[in-house]
Specification:
Blueprint: H1 9-39, H2 44-53, H3 60-78, H4 88-100, H5 105-124, H6 151-160, H7 163-174
């Protein structure tokens, strides 16, 4: 719309800038405030449940894996925590707790990845001033190197073992690990 009655062009530009800034700030600021009001006080367990419902691209095995990580690692330690209380110290404490509890590195890495995905979703909604996983050193799972037996080693394995061991060797061989 056109406004008239400005004494100078500078006053007209100032008014248009004011209108532009108000339109630009209000919806986003209002949406962020609504997200904080709705999700900030929500407990992690409930937020994770809603987040999981939005993961429509997961296959059945991935859903089972996700539920396992949530039920075994994430919810027991973080389930009652309110979403607006997460910061990098909380995430670090979660990782340290898994280490103290003897959780394997692969499970630690998987649990951290899921926690990170959930918290990044909350960060996109504007729940955090600072991303709680920024700068966090994730658990490092470094699997041992796999050694595939040579044909001669496979013959020796077949000759040395009992029937159940022979079955394992034949299955390995049948899967292409070493066949001759």
């Amino acid at each position: 719309m056109k406004e008239s009655g400005f004494a100078t062009q500078d006053k007209a530009i100032a008014r248009l800038t004011e209108i532009y800034n108000a339109k630009r700030a209000a919806p986003r600021g209002q949406a962020k405030a609504e997200h904080i009001a709705r999700y900030g006080a929500m407990r992690f367990e409930e937020y994770a449940r809603e987040w999981k419902a939005g993961q429509r691209d997961l296959g059945p095995a991935s859903v089972v894996h996700l539920e396992s990580l949530l039920n075994i690692h994430l919810v027991p330690l973080l389930g009652s925590r309110r979403m607006n209380t997460f910061d990098h110290k909380v995430v670090e404490a979660f990782i340290l707790s898994m280490e103290r509890n003897g959780v394997g590195l692969a499970a630690q890495a998987n649990a951290f990845d899921k926690l990170k995905a959930i918290l990044l979703d909350a960060d996109r909604l504007g729940l955090f001033d600072d991303n709680p996983v920024a700068g966090i050193k994730p658990p490092r799972y470094d699997p041992n190197r796999v050694v595939i037996p040579s044909s001669e080693q496979l013959r020796q394995i077949r000759a040395a073992g009992d029937d159940s061991f022979l079955l394992v060797a034949d299955l390995m061989s049948g899967c292409g690990h070493a066949q001759r």
